[in-house]
Amino acid sequence: MAHGDDARWLNVALEPLGEGLVETWTVDGDVTHGREGDLRWSRGGGWLYAAVECHETDHGGPAGAAEYAYRLLSAFVAAAPERHVQRIWNYLGAINAGAGDDERYKQFCNGRIAGMGEVFAQGFPAASAIGHHADQGLLQVYLLATTREGTRVENPRQVSAWRYPRQYGRTPPSFARATLLPANDVLAISGTAAVVGHASAHAGDLGAQLAETRRNLDALLAEGGLPDGFDARAPLKAYVRHPGDAGVVRDFARACWPEAPLLVVHGDICREELLVEIDGWRYR
Ligand code: 3EB
To answer: Full-prediction pTM beyond 0.90?
Structure first.
């Protein structure tokens, strides 16, 4: 795309499976935008978008890159009127490479918490952390923050990620299951997969993982006080580990939520046994 110099654009490192989509965020009000080193931002109407792209080779690996990206974002948000981070996306390469505590996702988690500044002390935002198949060293982190505070929502079917037991790494993942945005009219939903309690359910069984993911999404909507299901007002995003599974995922989503726009991308879930993860927005 020929938008490389425009700070409002991010060419995400996830390949669309099927029809590609451009996701566009609009606000009521004038929008300004700019760059500061590896960080780009745009803001207007009480909303801030900020993104950092960096390379692990410049920061000693996945932990160093995550720490660097989160430091830049934390410092920028701390000095901004939009100091409440509601939603954040993280894309890194070869997310499941490495064994035990050395798995690259776990290294990313260590660096993420190390780089999180005071703006994250009020609580973690909703998040997605996905493995891309572009240049392995590329880390992309982008967020949405607001002038007014939101409300974190956890899933009663799942252990909160920051309380995951030691087996998932030295530092548990730093994210909330969802955030209710300031006007209480939209639920921003984290990457949601077939995790029950803290354990992965239905290893290797795509159909069962999709059904479990749906139960998790339903539970989150109920917990957030939102109506059932997903409608035409906001896209759902499905991250699929095996490109050949895209059709099954698409058919499942169409059957469950026929009106919801769906973007299916090739993305690895941060636990090797998980095949699919879904995130999105729910308007009241
Ligand atoms: C899970 O429920 C699946 O590390 O930011 C989902 C959403 C997951 C966000 C993150 C991880 C993250 O634990 C993985």
So the answer is: yes
187 and 236 in a common domain: yes
Cα 31 to averaged position of ligand 1 atoms, centre (Å): 31
What is the distance in A from the centroid of ligand 1 to the CA of 282? 19
129 lines ligand 1 (CB under 6 A): yes
Is residue 167 in some structural domain? no
What is the tens place of the pLDDT at every residue in 49-107?
999 999 999 999 999 999 999 999 999 999 999 999 999 999 999 999 999 999 999 99
Domain boundary among 100, 132, 149: 149
Same domain, 188 and 62: no
Structurally, the chain folds into a number of domains equal to 2
pLDDT, tens digit, for every residue of 139-150? 999 999 999 999
Distance CA 153, CA 176 (A): 7
Residues in a beta bridge with 178: 153, 189
Beta partners for residue 42, in sequence order: 33, 49
161 C-beta closer than 6 A to ligand 1: yes
Give residue 155 CA to ligand 1 midpoint distance, Å: 13
Same domain, 43 and 141: yes
Domain residue limits at 116: 1-9+34-149
Clarify whether residues 129 and 222 are in a common domain.
no
CA 2–ligand 1 middle distance (angstroms): 32
Atom of ligand 1 nearest to the CA of 90: 5
